[in-house]
């Protein structure tokens, strides 16, 4: 199934994230964005009898399952974290009324600005989400998790294949951009 093609997704996402400082910004802020998004989505109930059955729980479960299907080992390590973000976010929303929602929204804004600055200053190109919003938002948490694992020596053959394909794809993007600027 093409949707679950890890390398294809990593090359797409990696093409927009080649500068080490931008990658670091994403490693820091993507988990923050995910936690605050899960917290905000906790405000959308799917059940009247259980506050933990909400849009956040549903989305985190979907992410967890798809991450495991795409990359069984890394996905299995990331899945509990993804689901825990939803549960902790729901807990915080329930305990701190609207105050936590306002904080989560403010952190979302700051985190998005940081990511756009990373793209503008270091990559000098628009972020991936402008070309494929769903893929960028879905893949970002897995991508930054794999970046961390690659730094620790995880699956060096996958990292090498991905980096080679990213160089080719990035060269195409740069050539296309240069053609538009001429």
UniProtKB/TrEMBL annotation:
Domain of life: Eukaryota
Keywords tagged on the record: Membrane, Transmembrane, Transmembrane helix
A Pfam cross-reference name: Mpo1-like
GO term, biological process aspect, one: sphingoid catabolic process
GO CC field: endoplasmic reticulum; membrane
Protein name: DUF962 domain protein
Record field: transmembrane: 23-44, 51-70, 134-154
UniProt source species: Sphaerosporella brunnea
């Amino acid at each position: 199934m093409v949707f679950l093609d890890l390398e294809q997704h990593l090359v797409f996402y990696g093409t927009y994230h080649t500068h080490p400082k931008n990658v670091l910004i994403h490693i820091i802020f993507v988990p923050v964005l995910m936690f605050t998004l899960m917290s905000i989505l906790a405000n959308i109930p799917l059940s009247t009898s259980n506050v933990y059955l909400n849009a956040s729980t549903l989305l985190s479960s979907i992410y967890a399952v798809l991450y495991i299907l795409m990359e069984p080992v890394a996905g299995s390590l990331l899945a509990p974290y993804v689901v825990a973000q939803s549960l902790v976010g729901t807990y915080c929303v329930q305990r701190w009324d609207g105050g936590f929602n306002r904080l989560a929204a403010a952190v979302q804004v700051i985190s998005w600005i940081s990511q756009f600055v990373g793209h503008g200053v270091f990559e000098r190109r628009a972020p991936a989400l402008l070309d494929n919003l769903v893929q960028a938002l879905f893949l970002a948490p897995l991508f930054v998790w794999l970046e961390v694992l690659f730094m620790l020596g995880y699956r060096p053959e996958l990292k090498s294949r991905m980096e080679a394909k990213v160089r080719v794809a990035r060269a195409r993007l740069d050539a296309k951009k240069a053609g538009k600027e001429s």
